[in-house]
Structure formats: C-alpha cells, structure tokens
Design goal:
This protein has about 240 residues and is of the alpha+beta class. It contains eight helices and five strands. The protein has helices at about 1-15, 25-55, 70-75, 80-100, 110-130, 130-140, 145-150, 155, and strands at about 165-170, 180, 185-190, 210-215, 220-230. It starts with a helix and ends in a 14-residue tail after the last strand.
C-alpha cells in the first residue's frame, strides 16, 4: 500500500513536471511580507500622529459659540477618516505578519495588539517631531476630496455671525487693529472693544490667527480673544508672538 502511494506520487510529479522552487524565492516572498508589514505599521503610526494632532489642535471650548453642547462638538470633531485608515493598516499589518514564516505561531489578537502598540509608539514620536501637521496640511492642499472627508477646522472658524473668525493678518493699524483676510478670501477689519485691549496680544503681519468676538456692521469684527492658528491652544490662551 505504501509503495503504491509513493509510486503514484512519483508518477504525478513526472506527469506535471513538478520541480522544487529555489530557496531564494521563498526568502524573497518572506522578506516581501516583512517589508509590507513594516510599511503598514509606519502608515498606521502616521494615522496615530495625525489623530493626536487633530485632537490637540481643536479648540474644545468654542462649542458654546456653535450653539451646541460638548458632546455634539466631539461627534463632529472626531477624525473618523484617520481612525478608519488606522484600522485598515492594522488589518494589512496583521495579514502580512500572518504570512511570514513565523506568523502562524502567534495568536491573532496578540498580533493586532502588538501592531497597534507599535503604531502608537512610533506615531507619538511622529507627533512630537511635527510630522502630523505636515501630513494634514499636505493632504488638505493637494487632495481636494480630503477636506470633504476629514474634519476641517476652517469650516468651524469661518462663522463670523457666531463669533468665530480666522485668516491671515494683511495689515496692522497704528492703534493695534488690523485687516484680516479669511480663508475664503474676504477682508475683515478687526478692532478692539477698548484701546486697553490692544495690549493683551501681540500680532504680526502675515500671522495666521483665530479670533473670537462679535461681528459688527459690514465686515467689522470686535475682538474678545486671539489665538494662533497652528499651535496647541490648550497650552496657550493668548497670541503672544512678535
């Protein structure tokens, strides 16, 4: 019986002309999975760093201006797109690790947790280095559909009627008031409620700012607070730049 099986196997190999694959082919396949595994973890880290950037860059205290509660503001602010991207690359990382020569030895849940942990550690490093803001800015500039899928704080800060205004300072008057071009291209005359208020903040030409206050007639906007556009505002409440 055993001899018959061996003979049939030998005949099948001869008929189908089966030959052993060279070792380098198996190694190349294994290395390819490891490379894609590494790329998946790195891209997951980019997602983590961008999520951290977006969450810390939001102004969590402005929900009152939008006539909503904090929970409602959180719902519209959650970076769902980047969370989806993180999940996607976690799945890709799991798939690639499972197909390496050692992937079969480990539990699936353990592999997923390790992948997320590595992405989180590397992503946190990216966050403090500043890669996150570059990614978000690049995507916003070169991918028009990105702003339709991701939460864009410019949509929130383009609400002068609700007391929220943002843009670039294009001219500064002698009394401290200034002209602001919002991100839609419209020019606003931003003034202080009283002359003393002009000493609270130091602004400069070309600075991108977020202004909280009250809209007046035409395109006049009265200041209550000024914040830098691209910094972590929970650390800094005023715009102290020179």
């Amino acid at each position: 019986m055993e001899n018959d099986v061996i003979e049939r196997t030998i005949n099948e190999i001869k008929e189908k002309k089966i030959s052993p694959h060279p070792r380098w082919r198996f190694l190349l396949k294994d290395y390819t999975f490891w490379v894609f595994l590494g790329l998946s973890i790195i891209l997951g880290a980019v997602s983590i760093s961008t999520i951290l950037f977006l969450l810390t860059d939001y102004d969590w205290d402005i929900y009152r201006y939008l006539h909503t509660n904090l929970f409602g503001y959180i719902l519209i602010s959650v970076p769902y797109l980047w969370i989806f991207i993180l999940i996607l690359f976690t799945i890709v990382a799991y798939y690639n690790f499972r197909h390496t020569t050692i992937g079969y030895r480990y539990n699936a849940h353990v592999m997923v947790l390790i992948s997320i942990l590595l992405s989180f550690i590397i992503g946190t490093i990216f966050f403090f280095v500043g890669i996150n803001s570059e990614v978000h800015t690049t995507f916003s500039k070169w991918m028009p559909f990105y702003n339709n899928l991701a939460f864009d704080k410019r949509d929130i800060w383009n609400n002068a009627d609700k007391g929220l205004l943002s843009g670039t300072i294009v001219d500064i008057k002698s009394d401290g008031s200034f002209l602001l071009r919002d991100f839609a291209g419209e020019i606003w005359y931003v003034v202080y409620f009283s002359p003393e208020d002009s000493t609270k903040w130091t602004v400069s030409l070309g600075m991108n700012v977020k202004v909280l206050g009250e809209r007046g007639k035409d395109n006049i906007f009265y200041i209550q607070d000024i914040r830098p556009w691209g910094e972590m505002n929970f650390r800094k409440k005023s715009c102290a730049h020179t």
